[in-house]
Write a structure and sequence with these properties.
The complex is a heterodimer. By secondary structure, chain A is α+β, with helices and mostly antiparallel strands. Chain A contains 22 helices and 23 strands. Chain A has two domains: about 190 residues, Penicillin-binding protein 2a (Domain 2), CATH 3.90.1310.10; about 350 residues, 3-Layer(aba) Sandwich (Beta-lactamase). In chain A, strands 2, 3, 4, 5, 10, 18 and 19 form a seven-stranded mixed β-sheet that branches. In chain A, helix 13 runs antiparallel to helix 21. By secondary structure, chain B is mainly alpha-helical. Helices cover about 70% and strands about 5% of the residues of chain B. Chain B contains 15 helices and five strands. In chain B, helix 4 crosses helix 5 and helix 12 runs antiparallel to helix 13. Classes of the chains: A alpha+beta, B mainly alpha. Chains A and B meet through helix 1 and helix 2 of A and helix 10, helix 12 and helix 13 of B.
């Protein structure tokens, strides 16, 4: 009986424990219920939004970049669609191992690896980076078959690449493209346009590609895509198409450009040719150039090192950033200043019987020993008398010279539509005060004025400025803002915006004075220092040769070209416009270390004028039509 | 109607013998919800639904067989099953396969399995049998032995390391001891001691275990790593709202934001598509299942039956609570499937054997009394 009661008591205890367990069930399920109500009712909106955020991704659609054309509609820069093999660095454990595995499938050269490493170092937050570009169809197919092995860490992407059919030609005008780096990003943010650059990897870094970046870029489109957890697009929910960039038509004549660059050959220097009636740039040469195609998909470090390390400085835009003393090409402007300021007339002469000018205890030598004899203004330009201009400069004084020359735009940025233009130096006492620190350096010495008269001394101008000044002589005294772009086309609306000529300066000069100087410059090409280069020309032209000293020659030393190291030889200048009656083209040529202007620079100008005015292409010059596409540049390097 | 000369009604009666109708209905409802959710979660691998059908058939067969066996017969398996389980755990410790840094799997040539899984049944069976055998002389010594019997396999499982399974096996054993009448005071003392030992346990924890705990406390600390599961499943549950997004319309699930969506995180899929209403239905079904289990325990004829049924019923509670708590972000991520809904043959088999045990205890309650 006791045992039975005991049993009943135990059963009672057990039922009590079951009851406690039931309470536990209710409590725990109550906790869960409370949690569900909290998540699904109280916080529902929050989580619904987060699920939506998860689900929808805004995918930018990069616009097609606008084309760059020359003045005749020849395509200078365009886009082609190419396949790239891209690695997602954040999805791989070992980059090297992944690349090694890829190399078993697809040809990956050491230069591809080097370029990839450079990209990786430069662009920290990129989603994916190309290890190989311009895949062939077979390579695409081969990778597609083995794609699964890489678990989404390597993908093929179709991208548009910039292509420059003329390779090196006009490279300093066109510029090049490069990956958007931190500095670019900061600038885009400053300009408030970074949203329009989402999904864009490349940006113009130099030349027209940079200065017309926003015109060329277009408007980025957007796609709302439903994505899965791996970020793969499942379906498109909505789409705002990208609007292509505007096409930019240059004032350049690519044929003239080719003629000029061919005539230049391997020498260093620059040519700027302008339409004197508008400031439109017809040819824009800076030699050596570079192949902008090499920059398109991330430049090969070796090529980059070559460009940067070369003593010829191929990335240096000599036409707008190189400054040189103008040498004797300065004389026509000096002559006009003298006429305008009443310091000289057409008939006033000097008698140069010694071949030098003495100032204080210094002798300023003429290139012709023994002197030119009686020299008037006409002769001073035709034979390029130094003594005439030594005396003139001394009489005019530095302030008058500087005051007059600034009307030609010398020593000031022209505002050409390219980045990287420098101002050069139009020397004056004010300039010296600003330029130097020590008082004895800041002082202007009268002796310094004398070499200014023949374009030496502190004179330092860009080839562009010399071309502008020459164009002003050609058009009767107007300095236009130089520009490379003729018009901009909106490919969708067909709207065309012309860039109108803009006057920068008007040179205060009477017509007869300009005509006097021009007549002398025509004499240069007929019977003077340019006569040899222009022998037999079927058009009239007005030119001036010049020689800019690279090293100073000591008082009693003689400059003997053969004894001077190549890099210390004089620069060869030539400025010209033609035809004299109705000028169509004005240009300035400089050949670095080319020696006498008449020998190196003038023949280049002659070749260009022959082509531009007569359509005469120099024999033996291979002028590929732009339709001859260069399919693969890999072989070319 | 006759089948091969035997009246069909007779066949039905034979098949239905020992089967508890109300349990079967509740479990059937859960399984149906499970299939609906699994179908939705398996849009990318439809074969899973068919596989689960096969698993279900096997599990139902096992349940039926177990339901036919009398508890006295079951008791005979208690000691051998326990010993075999412990032996296998030792074998795992010595020669198990290492997966994800843990030595849990035993390779038996044709297949691999986790001996810890069978301990979920073998330990309560063993303890229930032990208490039943010593029913007349229950003293503190018996509770100590029971505790030792519990500690041995749990310790072995902890060493693998498998914190989740160890906890589940330990609770299954603990429920037996609880129902066997362990004094409240001792339990309270042990609980207090356990709480005090937490910081010490922290020192012995593996890095990934610590991470799980830390991640629970603040999932945003590691949103792409360990916190990802919790964040995404919480979003799924929360975005389900009151009525859910509708069957097959869960974006979190269908866009693969929910990891393990067929197995441990299937509740996220269910909750996203059926909402709060669906969750309440599920809670009610589990509550009914546990209530029926506790009722069977209360009515059981023997101590063995009472203890085993009570432990099984509370195990359902633990599984359901831990799984749903984990998915909704109030418990750490441990490998616990949602009973009857998660995909997986082993779990389903264990669950249906448990149901079979309950049915056996229920249908044999009078037989023993006579």
């Amino acid at each position: 009986m006791a045992e039975l009661r005991n049993h009943e008591r135990e059963l009672h205890h057990f039922h009590l424990r079951v009851a406690v367990a039931s309470v536990l069930v209710l409590v725990l399920f109550g906790v869960l219920l409370a949690r569900f109500v909290f998540l699904q009712v109280v916080q529902h909106d929050h989580y619904a939004a987060r699920a939506e955020d998860n689900r929808i991704s805004i995918v930018p659609i990069s616009p097609n970049r606008g084309l760059i054309l020359d003045r005749n509609g020849v395509v200078l820069a365009r886009n082609y669609s190419g396949y790239t093999l891209e690695i997602f660095p954040r999805r791989v454990r070992s980059l090297e191992a992944t690349i090694d595995e890829l190399a078993e499938l697809i040809d990956i050269q050491p230069r591809d690896r080097a370029r990839f490493r450079k990209l990786l170092a430069e662009t920290r937050n990129a989603e994916s980076l190309p290890i190989r570009t311009r895949l062939s169809d077979e390579e695409v197919a081969k990778f597609a078959a083995h794609r699964y092995r890489f678990h989404g860490a390597v993908e093929i992407k179709a991208r548009l690449f910039r292509q420059y059919p003329f390779d090196y030609v006009a490279s300093h005008a066109l510029g090049y493209m490069g990956r958007i780096n931190q500095a670019d990003l900061a600038r885009l943010e400053e300009e408030g346009v970074e949203a329009n650059y989402r999904g864009t990897d490349f940006i113009g870094k130099a030349g027209i590609e940079a200065s017309y970046q926003h015109e060329l870029h277009g408007t980025t489109g957007f796609e709302q895509v439903e994505i899965d957890a791996a970020g793969r697009g499942i379906r498109t929910l909505s789409r705002t198409p990208a609007l292509p960039g505007n096409n930019v038509a240059l004032t350049l004549d690519i044929r003239l450009q080719q003629v000029a660059e061919a005539a230049f050959g391997p020498r260093r220097g620059a040519v700027v040719a302008l339409d004197p009636s508008s400031g439109a740039v017809l040819a824009f040469v800076s030699k050596p150039g570079f192949d902008p195609n090499q920059f398109v998909d991330g430049i090969d470090p070796q090529y980059w090192a070559e460009l940067n390390g070369s003593p010829d400085r191929p990335l240096y835009n000599r036409a707008i950033a190189g400054t040189y003393p103008p040498g004797s090409t300065f004389k026509p402007f000096m002559a006009l200043a003298a006429l305008e300021l009443g310091k000289r007339t057409a008939r006033s002469t000097i008698n140069d019987t010694t071949g030098y000018f003495v100032f204080g205890d210094r002798r300023f030598r003429d290139s012709k020993p023994g002197g030119h004899g009686l020299v008037d203004l006409y002769k001073s330009i035709v034979v390029s008398s130094d003594v005439y201009y030594y005396i003139l400069a001394n009489e005019m004084g530095i302030d008058a010279i500087a005051g007059y020359m600034k009307h030609f735009g010398l020593g000031a940025r022209s505002g050409i539509d390219l980045q990287g233009e420098v101002s050069g130096v139009l020397p004056s006492p004010e300039w010296k005060t600003k330029r130097f620190r020590r008082p004895e350096q800041q002082r202007w010495y009268p002796g310094e004025t004398i070499s200014i008269g023949i374009g030496q001394g502190y004179n330092s101008y860009t080839p562009l400025q010399m071309a502008l000044a020459t164009a002003a002589l050609a058009n009767g005294g107007t300095v236009y803002r130089p520009r490379l772009v003729a018009y901009i086309d909106n490919p969708r609306t067909g709207e065309r915006r012309h860039v109108e000529p803009e006057v920068l300066h008007r040179v205060p000069a009477r017509r007869e004075n300009i005509e006097l100087v021009v007549r002398a410059m025509a004499g240069v090409n007929r019977e003077g220092t340019g006569a040899r280069a222009f022998a037999g020309a079927q058009y009239t032209s007005a030119g001036k040769t010049g020689t800019a000293q690279v090293i100073a020659i000591k008082q009693n030393e003689k400059y003997i070209e053969s004894k001077v190291a190549e890099r210390h030889r004089d620069h060869s200048w030539y400025v010209v416009f033609a035809p004299v009656e109705s000028p169509k083209i004005a240009l300035a040529v400089i050949v670095e270390n080319g020696g006498f202007g008449a020998r190196a620079a003038a023949p280049i100008a002659r070749t260009m004028l022959d082509y531009y005015l007569l359509g005469k292409a120099p024999p033996g010059l291979d002028m590929p039509t732009p339709e001859d596409d260069v399919e693969d540049d890999r072989e070319a390097d | 109607m006759e089948l091969a000369g035997i009246p069909l009604r007779h066949v039905a009666r034979r098949l239905g013998a020992g089967i508890d109708g109300s349990l079967l209905v509740v479990v059937g409802a859960l399984v149906l919800l499970g299939f609906a959710t699994l179908y939705s979660a398996s849009y990318d691998a439809p074969g899973r639904v068919l596989n689960q059908c096969v698993n279900l058939a096997v599990a139902l067969g096992a349940m039926w067989i177990v339901a036919q066996v009398a508890p006295q017969t079951l008791m005979r398996f208690a000691l051998p099953a326990y010993l075999a389980g412990v032996a296998l755990l030792v074998a795992v410790a010595l020669a198990g396969d290492i997966v994800n840094g843990a030595r849990r799997w035993l390779n038996v040539g044709f297949a691999r399995f986790q001996p810890s899984e069978m301990m979920k049944l073998a330990l309560p069976l063993m303890l229930a049998w032990y208490f039943h055998k010593n029913e007349a002389t229950l003293r503190w010594r018996q509770y100590l032995v029971a505790a030792a019997l519990l500690a041995l396999p749990v310790g072995l499982i902890l060493r693998q390391p498998d914190l989740g399974t160890a906890a589940l096996v330990a609770t299954a054993g603990f429920f037996i001891i609880y129902f066997a009448g362990m004094s409240w005071r001792v339990m309270g003392a042990v609980a207090a001691l356990g709480a005090a030992a937490m910081p010490i346990a922290w020192n012995f924890m593996h890095d990934y275990q610590r991470r799980r705990v830390l991640t629970l406390l603040d999932p945003t600390q590691d949103p792409l790593g360990a916190g990802y599961h919790i964040i995404q499943s919480t979003i799924a549950v929360g975005s389900g709202g009151l009525a859910g997004k509708g069957w097959l319309n869960g974006t979190q699930a269908h866009l693969e934001f929910i990891p393990e969506r067929h197995t441990d995180f299937i509740f996220a899929v269910y909750s996203e598509e059926f909402g709060l209403i669906g969750n309440i239905v599920l809670l009610v079904l589990y509550a009914l299942l546990i209530a029926r289990g506790l009722m069977i325990a209360a009515n059981a004829a023997t101590l063995f039956g009472r203890l085993l049924a009570g432990s099984i019923a509370l195990q359902f509670l633990v599984y359901a609570f831990v799984n749903m708590g984990m998915v909704s972000g109030i418990l750490p991520v441990v490998g616990v499937p949602l009973p009857f809904l998660s995909y997986g043959g082993t779990a389903l088999l264990t669950l249906f054997i448990s149901i079979g045990l309950l049915m056996s205890i229920q249908s044999h309650r009078k037989l023993v009394q006579t």
